[in-house]
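Work Package 4 report. The design task specified in the project plan requires that, given a folded chain encoded as structure tokens, an amino acid be chosen for each position. We show below one input record used in the internal validation round.
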């Protein structure tokens, strides 16, 4: 039986996602389910590095934040997610109209939650291309311990 994400929790996470730096660069929630989070980014000139490709920092932020919110879908309601570590492999330069990221929980844990993310570049006239893969370890910390 597949676990379901409570609809109220889903709406809360979608609202909570769009704050601070991720909001500044334009990350948008596409969908959320138990153990899974999907995001998109409309590529703008401000996302580019010197050769015209999307800057690695944009990809890293997208992977980390999307994995973190995938972890939120399995975390306790009073838990806040923090990244313990992550690794990203850049497979090809990201370019096109849009980036799509799928973040997934590898194995739900009580306090340690390993995750993975795949980022694809999309363009209207070509197939989506996998441009980065990340693995991350997230931790769920009770909100009251962050004060």
């Amino acid at each position: 039986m597949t676990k379901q994400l409570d609809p109220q929790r889903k709406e809360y996470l979608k609202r909570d996602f769009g704050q601070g730096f991720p909001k500044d660069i334009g990350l948008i929630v596409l969908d959320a389910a138990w153990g899974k989070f999907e995001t998109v980014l409309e590529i703008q000139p401000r996302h580019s590095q010197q050769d015209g490709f999307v800057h690695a920092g944009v990809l890293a932020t997208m992977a980390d934040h999307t994995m973190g919110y995938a972890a939120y879908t399995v975390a306790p309601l009073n838990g806040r997610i923090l990244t313990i570590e992550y690794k990203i492999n850049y497979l090809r330069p990201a370019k096109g109209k849009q980036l799509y990221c799928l973040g997934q929980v590898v194995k739900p844990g009580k306090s340690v939650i390993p995750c993975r993310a795949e980022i694809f570049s999309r363009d209207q006239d070509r197939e989506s291309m996998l441009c980065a893969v990340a693995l991350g370890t997230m931790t769920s910390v009770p909100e009251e311990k962050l004060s």
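Residues 7-146 form a domain with the Thiol Ester Dehydrase; Chain A fold (CATH 3.10.129.10). Validation will be extended to a larger panel in the next phase.
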